[in-house]
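Bug #77: duplicate submission created two jobs. Keeping one. Sequence:
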Amino acid sequence: MTFYQAFETLVVPLIVLACAVHVVGRYMPRTRERVKASLAAGLGGASASGWRGWVARRLAPREAAGCATGCDTNSGCSTCGSNTSTKSTESGGASNEHIVRFVRKS
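Kept job's structure:
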């Protein structure tokens, strides 16, 4: 086995694994945050020192802002796409519609 084949045998599975982790994190955000929180707690939490403390602080879950928290039902938002301001519903009582425009590229 040549050096290139050994390198390719190691790098390609790492790239595939990284892509799979990214997709899982994107489509299962609550699970991702739970796993990150458990890893941070396992490293000693925010009170750990050195590199373990740095990694634990990076993995610790951040405070959620607004409705973009992974479609939580207890967050006060009615749906996942309800990241709209309250002014539009108070003033006109309009429905929550999104305009989609299709543009042909030339």
